[in-house]
């Protein structure tokens, strides 16, 4: 009898693991990558634009909307990550188990919306490099796509993915934090508005929620943990903790960006036009501020290119798909997005409106499937007794996602008016 046992299999993209300590380290790396993947997927060009516009519109009162949206986002993520993580099945696979064909319908919605938005993300990367280095925006978008492809060309694509999203996330937070510091925002006023808001906009709150956990974004980290093999009842605590941290990271980035712009607005600067964030950064730190804005916009865009491509393809494959096949499909997804962008120079506005509406339908439909599994399909959770309080909280939030979906349909109606 041999005294040596085979090493346990490692999560996708990692080398062989030689013991429990090494496995824990690999799991920590994958969980860190998953939570940053979700956070950086949410922090895209649209996230920056939304935050700038709402800060100018609401001033310090925007702090209240940010905090409320974070609370709701946490409730969504806790349910999505736990149900997918415990089952070990991706959202569309669970959908097909609940009702044959439903999962593939959701997958088609995700892939359609993800492809169109990735054209916009590629364009954002081009604009970021233009602001940072003065590079032509079209070439900047192509370079952004090439770098994103490089992540999935690697033989250890899983490790590369985990590491680059962490680096990009840290860079965005540090750079935004610096600008927030030099703009000298009225922090006390912002904190007071968290508790006693001067203005409350339900529309702004729901828009923030849709932009943070709407569409494919809410599934990005959850699907990553499934690919990394961090699943089952034994991983519940790790999964739940990571789902909350991912939203907190997104909230920190939004709050720092809000403070950076609030400092400029409170200082008397008049921000007008389309690119309010760029104006605010330039006003706060001069030419350096504009370059720093380019760094943030580029980091936000390339991380969203990676996140949208990875998550969209994760809906077109299953847990049985070979990692190499999944990587090749992801590369093709990025190449198609970049090619359309290079030919058009931008994402067509009509398609973006349609994709936005499609995105608004993904969360209520997909979330309904997951909640059905939590309430009625314990067999898909390996016999795990899903917490009733969490399922009830998720159901209440699901009603809000229906409203978000209804609101998104107005974009389609606008095309025919």
From TrEMBL:
Keyword Membrane set for record: yes
Transmembrane domains' residue ranges: 30-48, 54-76, 97-119, 131-153, 160-181, 201-222, 243-266, 295-316, 328-345, 351-374, 386-406
The keyword Transmembrane appears for this protein: yes
Membrane topology: Multi-pass membrane protein
Compartments reported by the entry: Membrane
Alphabetic keyword roster: Membrane, Transmembrane, Transmembrane helix
Gene Ontology CC: one annotated term: plasma membrane
Gene Ontology biological process terms from the UniProt entry: iron ion transmembrane transport
A Pfam family reported for this protein in Swiss-Prot or TrEMBL: Nramp
Domain of life (superkingdom): Bacteria
GO terms of molecular function: cadmium ion transmembrane transporter activity; manganese ion transmembrane transporter activity
Protein name: Membrane protein YcsG
Organism name: Kocuria turfanensis
